[in-house]
Automatic annotation (TrEMBL):
Taxonomic placement: Bacteria, Bacillati, Bacillota, Clostridia, Eubacteriales
GO cellular component, one term: cytoplasm
GO-annotated molecular function: phosphatidylglycerophosphatase activity
Superkingdom of origin: Bacteria
Protein name, per record: YqeG family HAD IIIA-type phosphatase
Length: 166
């Protein structure tokens, strides 16, 4: 188990993550945060672009799995069903239990798994602790919760280091 706040890579959006690159690195399972990573907060349906991206992952042999800390499991379930992917809500990130359960459900090991998210202290820390490849994206939108601005400001140095690793 590793305690690191540094993402292995940072991308502008999930759409910039190529399934072929993941597959070439031995990754066959991509765990993804929902809010501000795959979709805006409160979005109920995936965008057409996200659906095409998911299809490109599958074509490269990479399965997508939503791993969310959302306290609204019905919304996560609805979104995951609309996208046609498995999910786990109330995952408890940065704890590793949700990561382990997702990998067990999908029959994958940490070396075959990556996690993508927009937050250092949940998604990236959890991924590093679980021993999976930690991919970070810029948040889709910041408006709304004022605390989000502060959190992202604190996370910026870690994002900057991750951007240089790309």
């Amino acid at each position: 188990m590793s305690f690191s706040l540094l993402p292995h890579r940072v991308y502008p959006t999930v759409l910039d993550i190529q399934g072929e690159d993941l597959s070439a690195a031995g990754i066959t399972l991509l765990l993804a945060d929902l809010d501000n990573t795959l979709a805006k907060y409160k979005a109920l349906e995936p965008s057409p672009e996200l659906r095409r991206w998911k299809a490109s992952l599958e074509a490269a042999g990479v399965d997508l799995f939503i791993l969310s800390n959302s306290k609204k499991p019905m919304r996560v379930e609805r979104y995951a069903q609309a996208l046609g992917v498995p999910f786990l809500g109330r995952a408890g990130k940065p704890g590793t239990g949700g990561f382990r359960r997702a990998m067990e459900r999908m029959g994958r090991t940490p070396s075959q798994t990556a996690m993508v998210g927009d937050q250092i202290f949940t998604d990236i820390l959890g991924a590093r602790r679980a021993g999976v490849l930690a991919l970070m994206v810029e948040p889709i939108e910041l408006k709304g919760n004022p605390g989000r601005y502060l959190r992202y400001a604190v996370e910026e140095p870690f994002r900057a280091i991750g951007r240089r690793r790309r």
